[in-house]
Amino acid sequence: MRPLLIPDKYRQMSDQQLIEKIKSIKADPSLRSRAGLGKRLVILGHHYQRKEIVELSDFRGDSLGLSRDAARQADAEFIVFCGVHFMAESAAILARPYQIVQLPDLTAGCPMADMADIFQVEYAWREIDKVCGSENVTPITYVNSHAELKAFCGRNNGVACTSSNASSVFDWAFKKTDKLFFFPDEHLGKNTANKKGIQKDKVIVWNPEEEMGGNTSKQIKDADVILWKGYCHVHTFFKPEHVLAIREKYPEAVIIVHPECVEEVVDMADADGSTGFIVKFVQEAKPGSTIVIGTEINLVSRLAMEHPDKKIFELARSLCPNMYKINLRNLLWTLDNIGKINIVTVPEQIKAEAKVALERMLEIT
Questions:
Q1: Is residue 94 a contact partner of residue 357, using CB atoms and an 8 Å limit?
Q2: Which of 52, 231, 337, 352 could cross-link 341 (Cys pair, CB 3.0–4.6 Å)?
Q3: Is 353 contained in some domain?
């Protein structure tokens, strides 16, 4: 179904008018639950959203935090997810039957999620099965993936993970099998494997464009971790030369980066972690600290503004254009048509299997 076009009247309103309208909708008594214990409407805002969107959200967080928040909203009938499509899709998978999940712009996708489709992954799974038996491999999908891949993991004794809990998920999986098949982000998988002390020659990359993923049968048989060749363009933008330049200019700075960065950048940084980890790191840093952050620019800019007692700036300027698609205009448009437009749905069979993978993820955390 083609996304609807936003009506002109929303384009003609000022930001202040839009904000006031959104606040009035949120305060509407009719959007309280019948029991009066909670809200029928909940707005979730990812850390990478624009400042004004985050300020209007009921909950802000990273993928894991917002997955938890979405799952806990028993009173909410309407969950408006200010993020990208796979996030709203995960909320829809975890939603109760009476809940409706909406995404203000249905075209807000994720290029990394598009780098692995179900047909490619199932083909790779069959090839791996021929070499070492799929019963000896645990499939793990990064939450930044389509629902079909979460369903694949659910029905194959696998699990989903986020950058917050990838290490715990690896531990869980290695208790079950000797091998892991991790998709679609090569770099999160590689950096997690490095933290677990897995030998580099035991980690291979599966390129879906090549026969056997570009590997020999022996390499597949000997591997502990098989990583999909995928990446986040926001985080692979950061290069070792960016780190070197900061070290020279600000030798006192602490450099913290996201684990979707390439391993050279992660190795050169002082710390790495999810967006939730980065936020907590900044909050707990001493006044006067100089902190340089390698992640999406909206989060870095907001942290700098929220912590004026600290010197906070970006390793390099990298914007997620899909996160940026959510704005005051399409948020108000969605709220004016609550439960009617920009609805994210998942087919029941896929939803049931994907829910298994997501609930395992939440239990492990």
A1: no
A2: 337
A3: no
Q: Both 202 and 244 in a single domain?
A: no
> For residue 121, what are its two tokens?
């992954």
Mean pLDDT over 98-109 rounds to 96
pTM score of the predicted model = 0.94
Question: Domain for residue 152, yes or no?
Answer: yes
Count of domains forming the chain? 3
List beta partners, residue 78. 41, 100
* Torsion angles phi and psi, residue 203, rounded to 5: -120, 120
Give the strands of the sheet with 271-272, arranged side by side: 271-272, 254-257, 290-294, 311-314
pLDDT score of 80 more than 90: yes
Q: Are residues 105 and 117 both part of a single domain? A: no
Q: How far apart are CA 120 and CA 230, in angstroms?
A: 12
Residues 278 and 243: their CA atoms lie apart, in Å, by 17
Tell me if 2 is assigned to some domain. Answer: no
| Domain containing residue 249 | 240-314
Q: Give strand ranges (E) for 188-262.
A: 203-206, 225-228, 254-257
Q: What is the pLDDT of residues 3-16, one digit of tens each?
A: 778 999 999 999 99
Mean pLDDT along residues 319-344 = 97
From the list 180, 165, 159, the residue with the least C-alpha distance to 227 is 180
295: which 2 tokens?
Answer: 């992640």
Q: Is the pLDDT of residue 294 over 80?
A: yes
